[in-house]
TrEMBL record:
Pfam assignment, any one: PelG
Keywords noted in UniProt: Membrane, Transmembrane, Transmembrane helix
Transmembrane segments: 24-54, 66-89, 101-126, 132-153, 160-179, 191-214, 234-254, 274-294, 336-355, 367-390, 397-416, 422-440
InterPro entries per UniProt: PelG
Top-level taxon of origin: Bacteria
Protein's name according to its UniProt entry: Exopolysaccharide Exporter (EPS-E)
Amino acid sequence: MAGIGFELRKLLDRGTFWSGARAYAYAGLIGSGPWVLSILGMLLVGILCASIVVPPSLVTQFQTTVTYLVAGSLIASGGLQLVLTRYCADRLFERRPQRVLPALHGTLALLLPLATLAGVGVALWLPEVSGLYLVLALACWVALCAVWMLAVLLSGLKRYRALVALFAAGYGSTVLLAYPFSLLGWGLEGLLAAFLIGQLILLGGLWQVIVRGYPSAHWVGLDWLRQPRFYPSLWLAGTAFNLAVWADKFIFWLAPGTSVEVISVLRSSPVYDVPVFLAYLAIVPGMAIFLVRIETDFVEYYDKYYDAVRGGGSLTHIQTLRDEMILTVRTGLAEIGKWQAIATLLALLAGPASFELLGLDAALLPLFYVQVIGAGLQVMILALINVLYYFDRRHDVALLTVVFFVANVVLTLLSLALGPSFYGYGFAAAALLTVALGLVRLDRCLGRIVFDTFMKQP
């Protein structure tokens, strides 16, 4: 667990205010950089092209199409992302880095044909759109599925800086190409072509980093599918988590009373989408604290504890390191909760001014407030899941993600039935329930960590 942790420790060890500020800013950039760059890229495309694309509604159609493509590709690839990352992590622990690249190519060889077939099936349900639109959308869909696989592998291997730089290059290319393509009058298809080129640039860059970092004489391998190297619980957790994150959005998009038709059968929810987007910007500070605490204090004691176990340390020494590790977990979670609460309060205070500055309807403020709280709780879910993964509690994570998904669906449908005053409460309540359950499961895990460490070995 090196890489970013070492960089953050060097900054924090200096003990000055500015070194600490740099450490947290660095963590915020690499922890939230890819998705912030993605969102900003799409917004810049809309701002630059809104005045020259005729009719202007084509820009909205482009942004809606990309949103569906991103959501669908994350859900489709979410399970395999975790399966691949775990397989590669195990092979690196065995000092067999040459197995990483074949596993990646093997995963893509399985995922991309299935994604293509699924994309063709969905395309048949999109009437009243051009054939070129369907071809470009299908190509973007397949490219995104591949991008997520490579990106999560680099993230799991702690190549954060390369990941942020490549996302900046990919989405920057989309922004730079969208404007001239719009001037040429290529409309919606031109915007999709610019997005596809940006994704291919991002995909090529990600692939090159992995090939250079993990060279191998073999190009394709499928041994990650064999037992005991394939973990169904990881596939379930990855799929359920992405379904949980997007469930409330899809419900509001599909409900006739809260959505509008954008292109063919694709719909969006103006009343829900804008507050949700603004609320997610408030989690950047929480993500920074999460990354700093997990990658410095916790990982340090985590490594010491398991090094003592593997190195034949005395039981007293192992129990002392266990206590220190548990303390860092609890302190880290408390820090994440505290600073995310501060960020939430600041977002709530800045809400009215922000809405006025952006020209948004003040009636959406209550929904924004609820979504800010829900997004902050999602940061806690991520932190809990991350710590549970460190202790290989795969079934606990699968349970949490399934509960998150089911609760979000049920409670969001209930909020729709109760009326506008309850919009957003479904997601926030589902996140709160998941956090509570996660804390219980983590506490149980920490209470028997020494027993599980020894008794669950082969």
